[in-house]
Amino acid sequence: NAGVMQNPRHLVRRRGQEARLRCSPMKGHSHVYWYRQLPEEGLKFMVYLQKENIIDESGMPKERFSAEFPKEGPSILRIQQVVRGDSAAYFCASSPGGAGTTFGSGTQLSVL
Amino acid sequence: KQEVTQIPAALSVPEGENLVLNCSFTDSAIYNLQWFRQDPGKGLTSLLLIQSSQREQTSGRLNASLDKSSGRSTLYIAASQPGDSATYLCAVRPRENTGFQKLVFGTGTRLLVSP
User: Fold this and answer.
1) CB A102 within 8 A of CB A4
2) Residues 6+ positions from A26 with CB-CB distance below 8 Å
3) Residue B86's beta-bridge partner residues?
4) DSSP character for A86?
5) 8 Å CB contact between B106 and B48
6) What is the pLDDT of residues B29-59, one digit of tens each?
7) How does DSSP classify residue B106?
8) Pick from B43, B91, B105: CB nearest A104
9) Which of A36, A70, B32, B66 sits at a 20 to 30 Å CA gap from B59?
């Protein structure tokens, strides 16, 4: 089992560009969570998805951010028109629904 | 609103020392509490998970305790080694989040164990 796979590991974007972060959950896991870790801060919950459904997006900024988990393929966190304040580590986690959450290695987004 | 605090923010010890990391949370209505390890540029590794009905969990040189009523948990590391150097994160799963694993994290304790 390859674990939770996130790519890319590092992503550099200029202000105003779009960032797309991908997350493939562990095999058999149908629940995906995205967290953001700003410099010198703890991880903050962003969004929880199941296949084709957003269950809880209470931690997502209201504008420019969106997430999806299609029937086929990885979960995508999309950030439109990135700004310097979006620079952070973005972590994806997955679970089978019960206890136990496995985290990926994260994507470090740098906005120039 | 649940808030998680970790003290100290950073800790530097010589190899071989026993040490204690502290975590406090404001709302005792939790399902469980987890301790994670985060290495630079890497993801989170779950170390110990304590259910709300449990008092402690042990894994090797690690022991985590939970006092839900006072909103506190401690992570005890025995005979520390340089390989223990990492950031240690505490996270609680609030009881309000039935059915899914939404975690509230502390800001972590950065541990450096010198040879």
Assistant:
1) yes
2) A1, A2, A3, A4, A94, A96, A102
3) B111
4) G
5) no
6) 998 999 999 998 778 899 999 999 999 999 9
7) -
8) B43
9) A36
